[in-house]
Amino acid sequence: MEMPISTSRPEIMYIDLNSCFAMMEQQANPLIRNKPVAVAAYDTPRGMILAASYEAKSQGIKLGLSVAEGRQIDPSLIVMMPDPDKYFDAHDRLKKLLLKYTSEVISKSVDEYVVDFRGSPAIRSGLGLVEIGQQIKADVRDRLGGYVKVNVGWGSNRFLAKLAAGMNKPDGLTVIDADNLREVYGRLELLDLPGINTRYEARLNMCGIYTPLQFLDSPLDTLSRSVFHGINGYYWYLRLRGHEIDVADFGRKSFGHQYALSEKTSDIFELRRLIMKLSEKTGRRLRRQGYSAGGVHLSLTFEDHSYYSKSLKLGELYSTLEIYLAVCGLLARAPLESKVTHLAMNVYGLKKNVGQLNLFSGTKYDLRSIARASDEVNDRYGEFTLTPAIMADMKDVILKRVAFGRVNDE
Amino acid sequence: MREKIDEEVSVVMYYSARRKVALPHVISWRGVEYDVGEIGYHHKVGDGRTLSHIFELVDKTGSYWFRLKFNTDNLHWTLEVVSDGNAY
Questions:
Q1: In A227-272, which ranges are E strands?
Q2: B85 vs A: CB within 8 A
Q3: Is the predicted pLDDT of residue A396 greater than 80, yes or no?
């Protein structure tokens, strides 16, 4: 079925905070504004850069470089460790101000929101899209600080809104509609399209598609059968034309944590200590959100670039101890011939707790009650006040981090 | 250069009933008084049931940046970090 380009008014907004972590640090500290700043996982030479200010980006300092590489490019690079509480505070403030305009505010990550303005009071009052965008930018300066800039993009679907938000950085306000769609695609490359990575680009190239305009003009049949081999071709066909296909919001499927070891090791006792801390963090989030889990997954990356990854399905996991023992079971099977450099674990098969009675209630085998009591102590006196003995002296190991993906624990 | 301090400091705080804001005004640290200039960011953090306010600000001369924590449980002020805005 052929579909024309959507002529709907582009009332979906995509808004993101520019270089969020670095810019929030510059907002907080006026002395580092207009200077090259990087927020890195660690401020040691091997620490990975997570965000760079525009001044740093303009010199080629970007996400994924090490601190040493960044400093090689610019010795005056200011390196800071992340301050997750500040970024979450900015995330919440941005959400609150967007909710003044419409209730349809969906968080995509710590620094991005999709806002559906269709039928909103702002639109009904007759304000233009550019006017609304400018008003929001002024609100951001007022609520988050004068140095904070956001990119605003308008489109008739999420894809075009995100594409628009990625243009004219660092303080963009771009509208893509049926009138300028072809002109916008004409200025871009395939890799500029959100969701098109190098593998998709190669697939498109193999079918003679080298530009976004050729992509747009490709028949549905070509996309479905030759390029994407299935329903994805249809989705791209609609997406490129401004029809909404990305509204499905998937619920949480797992809770997990990962850790890049500052000291590589193959010492099983040290690895178990790290797993205990990750299990406690995972367990706290699992229980806070009211879930129990049905399985665990562990993956290890070794110094020699080999990889170990195993999952285990189990009855029901709720307490930190249960999670820890299950992951240790997987660790026991791992070949520890080389030192571990990276450790990741998660629990999956989530089930909402419905308060089922426990056979061992009130006995020393009642792990649920112990976990809840321990959580209450930590809720009251602070994280890791009460910890298993194996976690002694681990206060500054595995710090609080901000995930790049969606912010789910709201 | 950014330096972790974690020392309790004396602070003069000012509350404006008109603007409904309470902000640090003067910081006294190691015998020197610093008048507060621009407040870059203010946010709250929780540690268990203890709520603290974090103020990140520069002194009026623009020489130093301070990260101050105000513990609402015991009403103590802690100077957490100081920086001169340079990398080293």
A1: 254-265
A2: yes
A3: no
pTM of the model: 0.81
A74 to chain B nearest CA, in Å? 11
Residue B78 lies in a domain: yes
Is residue A397 a part of any domain in this protein?
Answer: no
Contact B41 A76 (CB under 8 A): no
Nearest to B50 among A24, A35, A382 (CB): A382
Write the pLDDT tens digit of every residue in A149-204. 999 999 999 999 999 999 988 899 999 999 999 999 999 999 999 999 999 999 99
Residues A200 and A258 in one domain: no
**Please, what sign has the CA dihedral across residues B80, A282, A82, A392?**
positive
Segment A81-96 mean pLDDT? 94
Q: Are residues A79 and A200 in the same domain?
A: no
Q: Check A27 against B86: CB less than 8 A apart.
A: no
Residues A297 and A320 in one domain: yes
Of the residues A227, A245, A263, the one at which a domain ends: A245
Q: What is the mean pLDDT of chain A?
A: 88
The beta-carbon neighbor of B43 closest among A78, A86, A380 is A86
% of chain A with per-residue pLDDT over 70: 91
Q: Answer yes or no: do A205 and A284 share one domain.
A: no
Distance CA A254, CA A279 (A): 13
Q: How many domains does chain A divide into?
A: 3
Find the domain containing A20 and state its range: 1-179
The number of residues in chain B equals: 88
User: If DSSP states are collapsed to H, E and C, what string results for A332-371?
Assistant: HCCCCCCCEEEEEEEEECCEECCCCCCCCCCCCCCHHHHH
Domain count, chain B: 1
Distance CA A112, CA A91 (A): 8
Would B88 be classed as within a structural domain? no
A402 part of a folded domain = no
Q: Give yes or no: residues A294 and A343 share one domain.
A: yes
Whether residues A27 and B41 touch (CB distance < 8 A) is answered with yes
Residue A141, Cβ density class (10 Å: 0-12 exposed, 13-18 middle, ≥19 buried): middle
Angstrom distance (rounded) from CA A347 to CA A322: 11
Answer whether residue B39 shows pLDDT above 80. Answer: yes
- In B, minimum Cα distance to A77 occurs at B87
Choose one of A149, A179, A209: the last residue of a domain.
Answer: A179
Could you report the per-residue pLDDT of A273-285, keeping only the tens digit for each?
999 989 998 999 8
In a domain, A25, yes or no: yes
The model's pLDDT over A209-240, given as tens digits with 9 standing for 90+, comes to 999 999 999 999 999 999 998 899 999 999 99
- Count how many Cα atoms sit within 13 Å of the Cα of residue A201 in the half-sphere of its side chain: 13
Domain containing B74: what range?
A: 2-83
| Helices H / strands E in chain B, number of each | 0, 7
